[in-house]
Specification:
Layout (H helix, E strand, L loop, with lengths): L2 H10 L4 H33 L4 H50 L2 H7 L1 H26 L1 H16 L4 H45 L1 H6 L3 H53 L6 H43 L22 E11 L5 E13 L4 E6 L5 H5 L10 E6 L2 E2 L5 H6 L1 E4 L8 E2 H5 L8 H10 L3 H5 L8 E2 L8 H14 L4 E5 L7 H14 L4 E5 L3 H4 L4 E6 L2 E6 L1 H7 L1 H11 L10
Parallel strand pairs: 3-10, 3-11, 6-9, 9-10
Antiparallel strand pairs: 1-2, 1-4, 4-5, 7-8, 11-12
Helix pairs in contact: 1-10, 2-3, 2-6, 2-10, 3-5, 3-10, 5-10, 6-10, 7-9, 7-10, 9-10, 14-16, 19-20
The protein binds adenosine-5'-triphosphate (ATP).
Length: about 600
């Protein structure tokens, strides 16, 4: 078990160490109260009841009451600290991990995977919360009760100590067997739970596809397989855990019998023990068993939380692949012209170990002049999206450089760089809220007029006006209440509304009909005359009016020119043109 995880966790709460100290003090008082009661009860029996001394009965009874009240109050106060500390711990971990995730770059997110991050931020943090709660509430008092009970028994019923020691040995052996079986079984069960969650997440997020392809039975069988495996994996630890309590009770009963028998013989033969000593010894057996039970119940939580902490700290320790330079070159976004140059750029995504693997872009050389519109065409997977993702530094080049107005993008502050770029990603992700929030996402200080200009250019204004609440209309999670084309138009409006110097549209009109696409292109050309525009597309119609069309194949630029030039000279372009528009459809001024 990695102890350093708990050390680190404690360091996070170092400012609140007084509360932990208070919890320790409360636990000590609780243990003192709990341990005093059997000893007092022995005195009450031996010197009060058996001697017929009513005054002693009253005095000792009163002391027992005080001990019980102290133990009770301390236990309640400690429970309050446990609840507070575990909630606070959850809050801090949630906040810190979420803030950290915001600093991670695309490469880091690729490696963690969003679904995995979700589990770390929810289940793993909850595991830590349970462990913190159990530790403060139960685990900290266990050694105090254990040691205290043994010491008292040693002084009050030394002749019965062999029974206590035998019980402890039997019980410790049972615990060891329990851990040997339960520990690995628990981690196997956790793996199966992960498997069930994965299957569930995949099926539920793709439920429409499942239904569309009538694959319900296949998915049911797949899920059934996963939950069957979980059932088998869960049965073993669950059985062992269920047997633990009866085992402890059985061992305790054995202990009671032995103590009453041997204690009774001792009392009757006048070897030194009093009746009270015998009855209190039975109560101490119960107190002894309690901490051992607590350890048995709580340790699996601690082990589980330790694994969870490792996963949480992995996020906190992740080094963002992209970071700001120590001495960034100051760039004024208002005066940026938007001349973008790719110089001998190679690029590869990084593998699990963070090393570049398999070149995706090879020796890219490209100059985009301010105000120019460059279209990118090429078969799927040829590297178009990867190429444009290097401009806002979603990823860094592995060789060469990308510059804007002569400044390497790696020498700028990321916030400045991104403020001059308006980007519309391939997947038009929208956040829940209203339409106004969705469009002004990149610049919350814009006026309604500015927003409407962007909306009109992206052909959003038309359909928004048909919504009764217009721009206050609701956007559901991920924009689920809009069609694919509407979502794309909203995300184009969001990119335009930031008034960028460089605009990147990655296959952003693929779900729009050709007429809508042409309207958007015309409006963008009008509105963004001086803005450098990069338009990635699958359809020729999306880039036909571009100043230059760059044709890509297997990560390389294989040709570039205007539509007319490429159509006249390039066989690949002619082939694409023929396959897409050759049947006589010539929109947007195709020759
Ligand atoms: N995040 C990623 N991690 C690893 N490899 C990736 C990642 N994104 C893309 N790739 C790989 O890089 C190559 C180029 O992908 P890219 O998305 O740039 O192509 P594209 O031309 O934009 O394709 P499409 O037109 O289908 O969007 C592909 O082989 C793809 O598998």
């Amino acid at each position: 078990m990695k102890r350093s995880n708990y050390k680190r966790l404690f360091k996070l709460f170092y400012g609140y160490r007084r509360w932990f100290l208070l919890s320790i003090i409360l636990n000590i008082f609780f243990a003192a109260g709990a341990l005093a009661i059997p000893a007092l009860s022995a005195a009450l029996i031996d010197y009060g009841i058996l001697k017929g001394n009513f005054g002693h009965v009253l005095d000792i009874g009163f002391l027992m009451l005080i001990a019980a009240v102290i133990a009770g109050i301390c236990q309640i106060a400690n429970a309050a600290i446990a609840v507070w500390a575990s909630e606070y711990c959850t809050h801090v971990l949630r906040k810190k991990t979420f803030e950290k995730i915001q600093t991670l770059s695309f490469g880091n997110i690729d490696r963690f995977r969003s679904s995995d991050l979700l589990v770390r931020l929810t289940t793993d943090i909850m595991n830590v919360k349970t462990a913190v709660m159990q530790t403060i509430m139960n685990l900290m008092q266990a050694p105090l009760l254990l040691i205290g009970a043994i010491i008292i028994l040693h002084f009050t019923a030394q002749s019965l100590m062999w029974i206590i020691v035998s019980l402890l040995i039997i019980f410790t052996i049972s615990l060891i067997i329990y851990f040997v079986i339960v520990e690995p079984a628990f981690s196997r069960k956790q793996k199966k739970i992960d498997g069930v969650n994965k299957a569930l997440r995949e099926t539920l997020t793709g439920i429409r596809v499942v239904k569309a392809f009538v694959r319900q039975q296949y998915e049911i069988d797949k899920y059934q397989g996963a939950i069957n495996e979980l059932k088998i994996a869960a049965l073993r630890p669950q059985h062992v855990m269920a047997y633990l309590m009866p085992t402890v009770i059985a061992i305790s009963f054995l202990g009671f019998g032995a103590v009453y028998y041997f204690g009774g013989v001792n009392v009757l033969s006048g070897e030194g023990l009093l009746i009270g000593n015998v009855t209190s010894a039975v109560q101490y057996i119960l107190i002894l068993m309690m901490p051992l039970m607590i350890i048995a119940i709580v340790l699996p939580f601690i082990t589980q939380a330790n694994a969870s902490l490792t996963r949480i700290f992995e996020i906190m320790d992740a080094i963002p692949e992209i970071s700001d330079p120590i001495n960034p070159i100051q760039v004024n976004p208002d005066t940026v012209k938007g001349r973008v140059i790719f110089e001998h750029v190679d690029f590869a995504y990084r593998n699990e170990n963070g090393e570049p693997e398999g070149e995706v872009l090879k020796d890219i050389n490209l100059i985009a002049e301010p105000g120019e519109t460059i279209g990118f065409l090429g078969s799927t997977g040829c590297g178009k999206s990867s190429l444009i993702s290097l401009i806002p530094r979603f990823y860094d080049v592995t060789r060469g450089k990308v510059t804007i107005d002569g400044v390497d993008v790696r020498d700028m502050k990321q916030s400045t760089l991104r403020s001059i770029i308006g980007i519309c990603l391939q997947e038009p992700v929208l956040f829940s809220g209203n339409i106004r929030d969705a469009i002004t996402f990149g610049r919350s200080d814009m006026t309604d007029d500015e927003m409407i200009v962007a909306s009109k250019a992206a052909d959003v204004d038309g359909f928004v006006k048909n919504i009764p609440e217009t721009y206050d209309g609701k956007v559901a999670r991920r924009g689920a209440n809009f069609s694919g084309g509407q979502r794309q138009r909203l995300s184009i409006a969001r990119a335009l509304a930031t008034k960028p110097r460089i605009l990147i549209l990655d296959d952003s009109t693929s779900a729009c009909d050709v007429a809508t696409e042409a309207r958007i292109q015309d409006a963008i050309t009008d509105m963004m005359k001086n803005v450098t525009k990069f338009i990635v597309a699958q359809r020729i119609s999306s880039v036909i009016t571009a100043d230059r069309i760059v044709l890509m194949e297997h990560g390389r630029i294989v040709a570039s020119g205007t539509h007319t030039e490429l159509l006249a000279e390039n066989a690949l372009y002619q082939e694409i043109y023929e396959s897409q528009l050759g049947s006589g459809l010539h929109p947007g001024g195709a020759s």
